[in-house]
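Subject: Protein entry, chain in single-letter code together with its fold tokens

Category: Structural biology, sequence-to-fold work with a learned token vocabulary.

Notation: Tokens come from a learned vocabulary of local backbone shapes, not from coordinates.

Start of record: The labelled sequence and token lines come straight after this line.
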Amino acid sequence: MRAHRMLPVTVVLAAVLAAAPAGPAAAAPPAARGPRVVSRHAILVDAGGGEVLWGRGSRTPRPPASLTKMLTALAVRASLDLDGRVAASRLAARQPSRRLAVRRGQRLTVEQALEALMIVSANDVAVMLAEGAGGSVGRFARAMDAESERLGLRHSRWRNPHGLDAPGHRSSAFDLAILARAVLRDRWLARVVRMRRAAFTSPSGRRHTLTARSRFLRGYRGAHGVSRGLDREPSMVEHMFDSGGGVSEGRSQRMLRTTIGPDDAATVGELLRELGQGVGTPEELRDAAIYWSAAIDPDMECADLQTIAWLLRDASAQRRVPTAKRDRARYWAAYLEGRMAS
């Protein structure tokens, strides 16, 4: 497996609070050494006022990959009601990973589809929404260009709703920062992009569990989203976020962690592997189970352990999962929740 390397494009939206001077006699503290930025195209923006605080190659058009889905979400919000429904066409069902693995004819509410779009970056759902809102991917792409022009994105051209490589499909760090602020101004979308996990049952009767795989969203306290993407290299194109205070306000940050012990971590990891490989485990739970079977650690952040506990709870409710595994999943979910509460 090729390693993902960081990073052609980075956009950071930061909430900045300037400290009041202590007085004329106060000596200026030594400048703190900042983090090393390896991105060739990056921008730092004050999320409140929109002031550009720093940039590097920020107006150079680049393939935006799955960050395209920010504009997809905004265009869909402008044209479809959340309680509306969209259906999976043959084209949608054939989209490559990352996917929700919808089947042709399966239906989702627009609310469910947007959650899948923004939390797990589902390419098949992006096509479902584009066809539902525009009638076809081509017509929706033209609507994206119109919305892009309305927002003042001068370095962007859009050819599809998911961001997979296409000639002429380009955006810049500067334009993506504008997009991110627009997403965060939509209260419903702002709530969704902060979610680490969601679960729903589609109108077609399929149960879906969504788990965000963003290490930044899971590991940085105060992270608000917004989106991430991979290009063909494959290298991470961007990790966008709005830091709601935190170190930018001069307050120290402390991650909440829970220790569960190496033996317990190994046992839970093995159970997750069994669930991920089990024929009775729903498809939408398998990938998450396999992922967390490798990621579980004796000393983990509470948010990650809670995600694993939720996953085990979901597995324990699946009738096709063997009874013994359901019982074990229920037991270990309760154990992890107890450890976090202690």
